[in-house]
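Continued from yesterday's entry.
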Amino acid sequence: MCTRYISPEEREIEAFWKIDRTSNQRKDWEALLTVFPLSPAMFIRRADEVDYARELVTGQWGMIPPWSTSNVPATKPKKGEEKGKRLSTVNARTEGMERSPTYKNAWARGKRCIIPAASYDEPNWETGKNVWWRFRRADGAPWGLAGLWDAWTDLKTGEVWESYTMLTMNADGHPLMGRMHKPDPKLPADQQDKRTVIPLEVHDFDRWLTCTVEEAREMLKVPPVELFDAAPVES
């Protein structure tokens, strides 16, 4: 799973994606370029249900579940508990999102987004310790990663929080992504459940934002190795 990435600057995103407008209901947020879980960053979504109109939004990386009492994602609290256990919602597994209490409504309602990334990092444990690798596109363009978004309202303050998550899928056997993440010695090589984010191509940007759920499901594919320019991060 991806837990850090670098976002292009706003002007670069607007030029590459030909953004129609910028929308942000929380004017106090400043999008970061180096993005970590719960950081504010930029994502692209369909504007007001208008076909082929894109808008740039600043939101929190880490989907806020509908039941949350704060912007920090957590499980539903059990009876007698004030808060549940903290959740990691920066990545959503495509295999279970349709059943997930956190993601199923966003997926069913077509709240899909594109997450711009100049690069993203993944851990490699082939040496026995974590070595971070950085992934860029081989053609020099920014990544447009598939994601989901939603809006959550703080009932105490009335503030509206936009939040988003990256979609991931199984990459066991992939010549590059199958090498990332710490292996489980108890499992065979073809059952490690190594994960990959899902890059979208330029010709699919508008389709991803506007198509049906069934069509969107068909677009979830393991990326070909030819897309990548990947190497260990220099110290």
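--- second protein ---
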Amino acid sequence: LQGGLALLEGLRAHGNRPRFVFSSSGAVFGGPVPDLIDDDFAPTPLTSYGSQKLIVEALVQDYTRKGFIDGVSIRLPAICIRPGKPNKAASGFYSGIIREPLNGVEAVVPVSRDIVHSSASPRSAVGFLIHAAEIDSDRIGHRRSLNMPGVFCTVGEQIEAMARVAGPQYLRLLRDEIDPAIERIVSTWPKGYRATRAKDLGFTAEANFDEIIRIYIEEEMPDRLPPVSNR
């Protein structure tokens, strides 16, 4: 929160009303929430993380209104499959349960497989950011927070997509082990957005999770998938 405020104050002092794109989160919405959140659904965060994101959104809105910046906040879905090593983020397993098996490493599924979430690839995330940076300000209007589109699916459907795209042998590298703390956190997050405004403004994401997996393979392991023992 303090970092966001300091950055906004620096831009205000610099002048020139720059375009400012803030990466926000679905954590601004607290439960109970509908299966698909409309653009008019009120954000009521249930975590400190979500509260901080919502406060910075309000600052972006206000600094834009006063003409200090030309800001827009984009609420991202889960971005996966993220390359690299696992991180401590509560949402990190969404990437890990696909990334680790595809790289021949065992992974834990820490939540129930019927948990629903919305995802988009890192490629789409980059596209969201670039489009938000370049879109005509008048098209955005005075409401400066936008829900981004994504693929609406369960954790189980995400795993089934891996079996379709890469092969069922990779399922052997998954182990279900519920982590109550992670499940409690992600169960309060929105399952997905209708993202009507964002789509009308030209923001796009993948059509299904199979496509997200293919993008990861294309970008991170284009030569081949690692073998998995049939034993």
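The chain is about 40% helix and 15% strand. Strands lie at 19-25, 70-76, 78-79, 107-109, 116-120, 145-147, 151-154, 174-176. Will compare against the first tomorrow.
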